[in-house]
Structure formats: C-alpha cells, structure tokens
Amino acid sequence: MNACPAVTTGGQFLAETLNHLDCQAQTLGSFGFQSLAAAGSPASLVLTGLLTLFIALFAIRLLLGDDVGPRDAVNGVLKIGIVLTLAVSWPAFRILAYDTVLLGPAEVASSLTPSTLPDTGTGFAGRLQAIDSGIASLTVMGTGRQTGSLQLDPRGDEAFRSIAMVDDTALGWARTIYLASVIGSLAILRIAGGLLLALAPLVAGLLLFDFARGLFAGWVRGLILVALGSLGMTLLLAVEVAVMEPWLADALQRRGLGYATPSAPTELLALTLAFAIASGGLLVLLGKVAFQNAWSLRVERQRDGAAGRAIGGTPLQPARPVMDVTAHARALTVSEGVLNLIRHEEARRSVPQLLLAAPTQSTSVQTSAGDPNARIGSSWRRTSPRTTAAQTQRDNRP
Questions:
Q1: Is residue 309 situated within a structural domain?
Q2: In whole angstroms, what is the distance from residue 39 CA to residue 87 CA?
Q3: CB 230 within 8 A of CB 63
C-alpha cells in the first residue's frame, strides 16, 4: 500500500493537505472494510453468529406454527442478501457505497456547476491554493500605508484609520480563517466517510433484527450526510473561489501599480469569515435533512379518511395511526382502569341512597319504559307488611 503524500510548508501547503486528506479517507474506507470482512476477523465471526441466529429464529417460528407468510420469507431472503452484499463482497460494496460516497459528490458537482462558477474537477485544489498564495502575497506587500508617497489629504496616514483595521492583524486572521474553514470542513466529511465505510461489515448485521435496526438506519443516514455535505461544500468552495479570485487579482494589481488599498484587510477578513460561517451553517442544514425523522402519518390518515366516502355517502372515519397506538397504549390502559374503578365506587355508594329514597307504601308504576329517571330493581320492593281481614281475625282470636 502506497503512502499518502506528505504535507510540507510553503507555497503548496493547502493543496498538499487536501490531497493528503483524500488519500487517508480512501485508504481508511477500503483497507478498513477489507480487514473487517476478511475470514476469521472478529467482525466476520460476529456477522456469522448474527446470520445463524436469524435463520434459527425463523425456523423456530415455522416449527411453532407462527403466522409466517410468503411476504415474511421474501423479506428475510432480501435482508440476508443485503447484509452479505454490504459485509462480504468488496466489488459490490465499492460500486454501491464506496464510490458513491467518496467519489460521487465531485462528479455530481462538476455536472451541476454552471458556467459562472469555476470547474470543480481536476485542478480545483490548485485554485484554492492560488487564493491562499494571493493572500500571503498581499500580506507581504501590505496596504501602502508606509510607502512614503504624497498624501493629498492633510491628515496624511491618519485618513486610513476610520475605514480599516490594523493591517497585520486583519490579514493574518483572514488567512488563518480561510485555511481553517477549508481544511476543517473537508476533513470532517472525508474522514467521517472513510470511517463509516470501514465499519460496514460490522454494522450490516444489525439490519437483521428489529431492535438494532435504528443503528443501521443511523449508519445509512451518516453516509447520506457525508455525500450531501461533500457535494454542498464543493459548490460552496466554488462560489468562494469565484468571489475571491477576482478580488485578490484586483488588490494585487493595485498594489503592484503603487496604489494604496486601505480597505483590503477589512474586506478580506469579512469574506473569509462569512464563508467560514456559511460552511458551518451548510453542514448543520444538511445534517437536519439527512437525520430528519419520518413524517407523521396522522395528517395523511385524516386526509384519506375525510376524502373517502362510504356507499351511503357517510364519510369514512380515518384509521388510527399505528405509531400513536403504540406510543400511548400503556397510558390508555392505565387511565381506563382508573376510570372503571371510580365508576364502580360511585355505583356502590349510590345503592344505600336509593334504598333510603324508596317509598314506604305501594304505588302504581306509571312510568314509561323510555323514562331515564324511572327507578328499577329493588327500589320498588314493598317495605310494609301486607294484611288481610282473615289474618287480622286470626291474630285477634283469644
């Protein structure tokens, strides 16, 4: 395996650093994948165990008579095929993921770049290096404050104080921010992409089980973020090159002709700082896009239920979202149990009150069957003894 190009100080610092980062990311992705996917490696043993466990659990479901249909069998076969493709086959993985994540964004950016932006293909790192060299040259030449030329303004050199920062400080910070923003943004994307690609044999087995599928989805979203971030950063750097190349050329030309450029340090610092902030904001925005949760099904279900019509013209009730039932099933069970207990206690306490309110004499029932206030049950039972004339004579007999 060939070593990556060394980074040296001087006029090619930025270009050599970017080439070194690309080399390290590609080496990490390819070498790490092949090392973990090799026979006898710990990742290979873990993957074999996961596949064996998945097949054994599926066979147990069949033996126990579980409801396993053709759809479940097809999904199981597809899962095994995807896992083996991601974890074992390097040629298939290279076409499917490696080239897409590490090499695809540059090709897409080249096709998306309009004629008003510089080409992002071969030689783009050299153009970024040319901007850094221009900033260094402008720092050496200065802004013309101490040239000793005749000043038409009677205030002399003090005329620059209100529109410019201290030259050395502004120019030094501008170059530092430019180098840090370009190297830092590309380094985090390239190294993160190489690391995620290297972990593919270890992460692929998580697709087989539902409890670990979230980790696999996070891994896929991380790769999507790297691809989108690389594409976005390439286009943002193309815009930065399009803005700063003519500005630097004009500033250097003015200084070469002997004119003073008192506003150059402030303008250069503002440009580099603005693009550095834009780089961070772009990564945050693309991260939100890549890791966005699934849209809620509640609105779609309600819309479908309102739009659907029954045969008699009555609108169909929207189906209850499955996610909502799953999330609130336990809370609903507890609340219903407490409500049933309260109702039972209220009913038990109302029985003595109904007995006390019962009439002491027999009355005729003249309530309709649909009256909600009609008392039923033991509330109309006789409370006084029934006597007859014969019973009275018998009781009074001496």
A1: no
A2: 11
A3: no
Provide the CA 77 distance to its chain's centre, in angstroms: 28
- Identify the three-state secondary structure at position 315: strand
CA angle 133, 138, 140 (to 5 degrees): 95
197 is written with which tokens?
Answer: 């690609």
User: Strand, helix or coil at 380?
Assistant: helix
Same domain, 286 and 324: no
CA 122 – CA 145 distance, rounded (Å): 39
Note whether 235 and 334 are same-domain residues.
no
Helix (H, G, I), strand (E, B) or coil at 319: coil
What stretches of the chain show up as alpha helix (H) in DSSP?
13-37, 42-63, 70-87, 90-93, 99-102, 104-112, 124-141, 167-198, 200-203, 213-256, 264-290, 298-307, 322-356, 389-396
Q: How many domains does the chain have?
A: 2
pLDDT means per 10 residues, the chain with 398 residues, are: 83 92 92 87 87 88 79 86 86 88 90 86 89 93 64 51 70 94 94 93 87 88 94 94 94 90 90 96 93 58 49 47 50 74 75 53 45 53 65 69
In a domain, 280, yes or no: yes
Question: Residues 174, 272: contact at Cβ < 8 Å?
Answer: yes
pLDDT for 374 equals: 52
Q: What is the pLDDT of residue 209?
A: 86
φ/ψ of 66, rounded to 5, equals -70, 155
- Structural domain range at position 273: 13-143+164-290
DSSP type of residue 199 = T
Question: Are 205 and 253 members of one domain?
Answer: yes
* Separation in Å, CA 33 to CA 29, 41, 187, 252, 276: 6, 11, 20, 48, 33
How much is the pTM?
A: 0.68
Is residue 375, in this structure, part of any structural domain at all?
A: no
Q: Are residues 53 and 173 in the same domain?
A: yes
CA–CA separation, 62 vs 44, rounded Å? 27
My answer on whether 190 and 329 are in the same domain is no
Are the CB atoms for 117 and 239 separated by under 8 Å?
Answer: yes
In a domain, 370, yes or no: no
One domain, residues 221 and 133: yes
